[in-house]
């Protein structure tokens, strides 16, 4: 059951709530721990447990499309223990799941359907629970240049960052696979070979193994992997390891190296030494940014959050060594050292953390540019508290940017969390959260299994000029168009009055790109325009036109793909492209003059292929004849046009064709005998042969 409340227009408000009433409450219970992941296709995966009559638990993975939350697909995972991790790949079409028994499964879409999933490969570290899981990096990293949002070229707004894959095949192609960390301090890597074979290797993070309660995985630009671990106690150090993966003699090899560690600042403060005994959350600020980490230490009632950064610092050298070796004095040795960037005051107990995925650099220069341009998406991370509230705080300064309260009575932001009255029973709070890929939406699943979707304002409560707000939304739409990500979360913030301007500006920016890029993005911009026009009653009539054009492009691509050059050393253009170019240049309606400029052998297809496409070719012929017959009527007011279910006009009054004998079989193919009869189409086909 989905509840869609009215928009409130604040910094964060509720978009909808999903409750699973089709399951009896006695058999449905949230899983412990609760895992949740949000893909770039705006598919959300999360876990629950179903209890049978004999008290057996079934571990279930649910796949939810954010645009149609009422249509939930559930997959029986067949995990024997609780699912601890879920992780989408970069394409959003495959999902990793790991459990407390060390089993990892790779789920993929069957026939590209979001409601059909199958698991064919996986790995196992028997009896060792998985605490962290990630796909290997494919080397694709994009940077957003907010200060260049007004540039004409997409290449200036979104640039490719030099980033090495975790592992490469012959020719530099990235190798697919995943890496996981277990509770006993093991790191396991599984590689997917092109043949379908899985290479798996397991190695200890260090010689002296210890318990790992929390872990996270990040990647460096040089192709290495960094793993952060903690044993759960704030009195123990947070350890960091560099992991290198390679393939030697058809076997996966793992090499590890210890990196500098850190102690949380709250444990070194005499006034707070024993106040926060446990580390409850450990996260790198970005998947491809291993130099910055977020830590949260908690007690039974409160928490504190700290942000740390790894920096290179000069190592002081004694004057004696400088006199002995002047070279040492000229070039000061450098070491890596963790430095605290910021820390919060005492907060209510943190129950969940969600980090942004928008690739905005966290250097001081880029943050200042984002602040000057008033571009706020991607600058904040989300913290959920046991009192039911959610705070968006700055990624580095940890200053509060937006607040959402689940209760009806709002609380002031500056009220100390420790003074708030507590209810007798457990408060409803989020146990798992995820931010969308543009940071404009937030999903949270509470301790009763209810899913809530929150909208995060792009302005974060600041007053923005209308044109500036439109430019920010347009910038994010262009980012989704270039990356291929779904843009549903952006549509949450588009008002009906913005639709016309956004569609026009989007088309204007698209036409500024080079022809090759326009061809690549042609279908994406049509789909984007259709989804935008659906939001306004003034433009909803265009939706059918855009979908129709997408449909015709799909048919055109299918037919063109069947044509192959007669010789391999032909020019770059395919037979279909050359036919299009010739038809554009030759305005003569005589088909014979067009055929003279074509190589007819390139248009010969196998008989079995022609039989398989008979119905499609029949539809295309009917459609073309209908268009030709409708041309004299274009002076009349335009009407709604639906090609898949064509309605033919009554043309029986028109004179029959002359010069081409039509057989009864030919006439039966066309509902009304017109001057554009099938014998003409047949002669064109004969000429092609």
UniProtKB/TrEMBL annotation:
Pfam annotation, one family: WD40
Gene3D superfamilies cross-referenced by the UniProt entry: YVTN repeat-like/Quinoprotein amine dehydrogenase
Superkingdom of this protein's organism: Eukaryota
Classification via SUPFAM superfamilies: Soluble quinoprotein glucose dehydrogenase, WD40 repeat-like
Listed GO CC annotations: mediator complex; nucleoplasm
Domain Mediator of RNA polymerase II transcription subunit 16 central helical bridge: 476-636
Major location (coarse): nucleus
InterPro entries (alphabetical): MED16_bridge, Mediator_Med16, Mediator_Med16_N, Quinoprot_gluc/sorb_DH_b-prop, WD40/YVTN_repeat-like_dom_sf, WD40_repeat_dom_sf, WD40_rpt
Domain Mediator complex subunit Med16 N-terminal residues, every copy: 123-410
Listed GO biological process terms: positive regulation of DNA-templated transcription; transcription by RNA polymerase II
PROSITE patterns the record matches: WD_REPEATS_2 (PS50082), WD_REPEATS_REGION (PS50294)
WD repeat intervals: 76-109
Intracellular or extracellular location(s): Nucleus
Keyword annotations of the record: Activator, Nucleus, Repeat, Transcription, Transcription regulation, WD repeat
Subunit structure: Component of the Mediator complex, which is composed of MED1, MED4, MED6, MED7, MED8, MED9, MED10, MED11, MED12, MED13, MED13L, MED14, MED15, MED16, MED17, MED18, MED19, MED20, MED21, MED22, MED23, MED24, MED25, MED26, MED27, MED29, MED30, MED31, CCNC, CDK8 and CDC2L6/CDK11. The MED12, MED13, CCNC and CDK8 subunits form a distinct module termed the CDK8 module. Mediator containing the CDK8 module is less active than Mediator lacking this module in supporting transcriptional activation.
Purpose: Component of the Mediator complex, a coactivator involved in the regulated transcription of nearly all RNA polymerase II-dependent genes. Mediator functions as a bridge to convey information from gene-specific regulatory proteins to the basal RNA polymerase II transcription machinery. Mediator is recruited to promoters by direct interactions with regulatory proteins and serves as a scaffold for the assembly of a functional preinitiation complex with RNA polymerase II and the general transcription factors.
Family affiliation: Belongs to the Mediator complex subunit 16 family.
Protein name: Mediator of RNA polymerase II transcription subunit 16
Species, as recorded: Prolemur simus (Greater bamboo lemur)
Gene: MED16
């Amino acid at each position: 059951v989905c509840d869609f409340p009215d928009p409130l227009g604040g910094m964060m408000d509720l978009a909808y709530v999903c409750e699973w009433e089709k399951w009896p409450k006695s058999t449905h219970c949230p899983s412990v721990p609760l895992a949740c992941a949000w893909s770039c296709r705006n598919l959300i995966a999360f876990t629950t447990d179903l209890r049978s009559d004999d008290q057996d638990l079934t571990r279930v993975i649910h796949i939810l499309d954010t645009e149609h939350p009422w249509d939930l697909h559930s997959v029986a995972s067949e995990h024997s223990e609780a699912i601890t991790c879920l992780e989408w790949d970069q394409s959003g079409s495959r999902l990793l799941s790991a459990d407390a028994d060390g089993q990892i499964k790779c789920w993929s879409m069957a026939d590209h359907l979001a409601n059909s999933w199958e698991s064919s490969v996986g790995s196992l570290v028997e009896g060792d629970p998985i605490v962290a899981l990630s796909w290997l990096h494919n080397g694709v990293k994009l940077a957003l240049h907010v200060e260049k949002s007004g540039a004409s070229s997409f290449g200036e707004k979104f640039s490719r960052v030099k980033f090495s894959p975790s592992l490469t095949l012959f020719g530099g192609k990235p190798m697919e696979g995943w890496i996981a960390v277990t509770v006993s301090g093991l790191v396991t890597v599984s590689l997917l070979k092109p043949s379908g074979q899985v290479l798996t290797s397991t190695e200890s993070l260090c010689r002296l193994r210890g318990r790992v309660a929390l872990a996270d995985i990040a990647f460096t630009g040089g192709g290495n992997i960094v793993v952060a671990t903690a044993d759960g106690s704030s009195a123990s150090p947070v350890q960091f390891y560099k992991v290198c993966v390679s393939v030697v003699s058809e076997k996966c090899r793992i090499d590890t190296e210890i990196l500098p560690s850190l102690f949380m600042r709250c444990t070194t403060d005499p006034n707070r030494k024993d106040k926060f005994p446990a580390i409850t959350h450990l996260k790198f600020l970005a998947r491809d940014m291993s130099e910055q980490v977020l830590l949260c230490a908690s007690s039974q009632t409160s928490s504190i959050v700290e942000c740390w950064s790894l920096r290179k610092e000069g190592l002081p050298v004694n004057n004696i060594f400088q006199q002995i070796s002047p070279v040492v004095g000229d070039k000061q040795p450098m070491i890596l050292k963790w430095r605290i960037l910021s820390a919060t005051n005492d907060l209510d107990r943190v129950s969940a953390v969600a980090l942004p995925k928008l690739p905005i650099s966290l250097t001081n220069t880029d943050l200042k540019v984002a602040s000057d341009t008033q571009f706020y998406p991607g600058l904040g991370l989300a913290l959920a508290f046991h009192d039911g509230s959610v705070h968006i705080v700055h990624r580095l300064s940890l200053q509060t940017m937006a607040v959402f309260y689940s209760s009806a009575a709002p609380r002031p932001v500056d009220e100390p969390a420790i003074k708030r009255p507590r209810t007798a029973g457990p408060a409803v709070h989020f146990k798992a959260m995820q931010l969308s890929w543009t940071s404009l939406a937030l999903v949270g699943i509470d301790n009763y299994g209810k899913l809530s979707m929150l909208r995060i304002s792009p302005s974060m409560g600041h007053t923005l000029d209308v044109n500036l707000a439109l430019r920010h939304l347009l910038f994010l739409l262009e980012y989704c168009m270039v990356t291929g990500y779904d843009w549903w979360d952006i549509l949450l913030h588009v008002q009906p009055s913005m639709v016309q301007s956004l569609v026009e500006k989007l088309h204007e920016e698209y036409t500024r790109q080079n022809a090759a890029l326009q061809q690549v993005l042609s279908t994406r911009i049509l789909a984007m325009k259709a989804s935008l026009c659906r939001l306004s009653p003034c433009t909803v009539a265009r939706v059918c036109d855009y979908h129709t054009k997408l449909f015709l492009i799909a048919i055109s691509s299918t037919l063109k793909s069947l044509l192959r050059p007669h010789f391999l050393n032909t020019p770059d253009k395919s037979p279909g492209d050359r036919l299009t170019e010739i038809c554009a240049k030759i305005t003569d309606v005589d088909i014979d003059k067009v055929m003279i400029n074509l190589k007819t052998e390139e248009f010969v297809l196998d008989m079995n292929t022609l039989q398989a496409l008979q119905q499609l070719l029949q539809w295309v012929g009917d459609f073309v004849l209908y268009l030709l017959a409708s041309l004299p009527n274009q002076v009349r007011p335009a009407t709604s046009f639906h090609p898949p279910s064509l309605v033919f006009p009554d043309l029986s009054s028109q004179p029959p064709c002359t010069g081409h004998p039509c057989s009864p079989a030919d006439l039966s193919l066309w509902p009304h005998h017109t001057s554009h009869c099938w014998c003409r189409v047949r002669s064109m086909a004969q000429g092609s042969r």
